[in-house]
Every structure is written in C-alpha cells, then in structure tokens.
Amino acid sequence: MDFQKICKKYFNRYINSADFLSELKELDISKLSEAEQTSFSALIISIESIQKETTNEADELVKTEYQKIQESINKIDSIVKQVKKSPQELRDHLKELKDSLKKPRDNFERWSKISDAISQNKYYQDSFATLTDEQLLELIAQDIKAPRPIPLDDKKFDALIEAGIKTDARESLWRLALNYREEDFSIRKIVDYFFNKNDLWYLTELISAVGEKTDLPYILDKIKTPEEIKYFLESRPIICPPFTPEQMETLEKRLK
C-alpha cells in the first residue's frame, strides 16, 4: 500500500522524480518475493535511466504549475493577513505551497516517461490489482481532489461506495464524490447513506462540493423533518448555490 501511495503522489505531480526515487528506496522490500523484488528494482533502474536520458529544463507545464502555485500563495497570503487568527491548517498549507515553489518539477517529457514506466511495471500492476475495495477507497481518499484521479468504471465506483458504507468511512465517501466530480457517476447511494445516518453536516458539505451531481431535486424531496429543514436553512451560505433561492423558499414554506 505504501508503494501505491508513493506512485500516486508521482502521478499527480506532488513530488518530482528525485523525491520519488528517494521515497522508493526507503521502502522495506524484504518481505516481497524474489520476483517482486526484481520487478521493483527494475523500476528504479528505469527511472534512473530516464533521468539521465531527459533534461530537467522547465517547459510550459512546469511554468503553468509554478504560476498556479504563486496565484494560490497570493490568495491565501491575503486571507492570512486580513484575518487576525487564521486557522493553523491554512498557514501550514501556505508554507507547503511556498516550499513547493522552491522545488524543481519534472517537465512533461520526464514525467510522462516515468509515469509510463510505473504503469507498465509488473510489480506495480500486480500490487494494484490485489488492493481490496476498502484499500482502494483509502488510497483515493488521500486526496480531497486529485488532479489525476485513479481511472474507475461505474461498477468499481459503486463498489467503492459500498466499501465506504460498510466501514462507515464518511470522509472517504465525501472525498470519493469530489475526486470524481467530473465523471458521470451516480452518488445517490452516498446521499442516501448520509440521510440514513442523519449526518446533515456531511450532506451539506457534499452539496457544497459537488453541487448538481447530488441531484438537488431528489434531496429537496427527502428533506422532511423540522430539524432537517432548519439545518438546511441555517446552512444557506454553504449550499447556495447550488441550491436556488426558489428551492430554499420551498423549504421555508414547509417549516411554516
């Protein structure tokens, strides 16, 4: 699982190839079979070869990423300066962004070749294939919103929802929905689960995060009790939009 987490960080460009290699070499592979160790070592050799074959000259991808990081730094920095007691998490994130701006990033040629080497590596393929649905959900939920989420089909997405329900992994279910917001997957089972658990906090956070993907008319029909209605009305700053003024007015009338 640790190996998969490190590979996922590289796929999403959270780390460069130097850091990737460093983290790989820190893994304890003594419990792997001889064939697995051979495949793992072959991946390291491939990465080192690609590093030698490619330049690390910044291309448009790298320049764009640096620009986006700087824009995020400017926004957060402005918030921190305006708010007297800004959350520690926000300040920590600001520091992480500033640190990442100082680190070299792999250009597209190097990153794409190493990504291919990982994907084609037998140990990577076999270890990914043995992940349980619970483990795969945990791997995906490492990110609130990954730039390049792990490819899934409808069947596997539904299986991951079931895994999250089975283990009551509400945060993971919320992150699953957000990671695949752009995909045409149904998240009604997640909505129903939050309703069944009377977890209105996660439900409103889900609406705020993925909007229309939650099927707002369906949710509106399910809000019945005075407690639920009051909670949604109090959550107006979070859920409007995507909830429209007309939909909120419908809730207000129900309360009367």
In helices, the fraction of residues equals: over 70%
Unreliable segments of 5+ consecutive residues: none
Beta content comes to under 5%
Mean pLDDT: 92
Number of strands: 0
Shape: globular
Assembly type of the shown chains? Answer: single chain
Total DSSP helices? 16
Question: Structural class, from helix and strand content?
Answer: mainly alpha
Distance between the termini: 53 Å
Order of helices and strands: HHHHHHHHHHHHHHHH
Radius of gyration: 22 Å
Largest sheet: none
Write the layout of secondary structure elements.
Layout (H helix, E strand, L loop, with lengths): L1 H10 L5 H10 L7 H20 L6 H23 L5 H15 L5 H13 L1 H8 L3 H8 L13 H13 L3 H10 L8 H9 L3 H11 L5 H7 L3 H9 L1 H4 L5 H11 L1
Helix pairs in contact: 1-2, 2-3, 3-6, 4-5, 8-9, 9-10, 10-12, 14-16
Textual characterization of the structure:
There is one protein chain. The radius of gyration is 22 Å and the shape is globular. The model has no long low-confidence stretch (mean pLDDT 92). The termini are far apart. By secondary structure, it is an all-alpha fold. It contains 16 helices and no strands. The chain is 71% helix and 0% strand. It has helices at residues 2-11, 17-26, 34-53, 60-82, 88-102, 108-120, 122-129, 133-140, 154-166, 170-179, 188-196, 200-210, 216-222, 226-234, 236-239, 245-255. Helix 4 (60-82) packs antiparallel against helix 5 (88-102), helix 8 (133-140) crosses helix 9 and helix 14 (226-234) packs antiparallel against helix 16 (245-255).
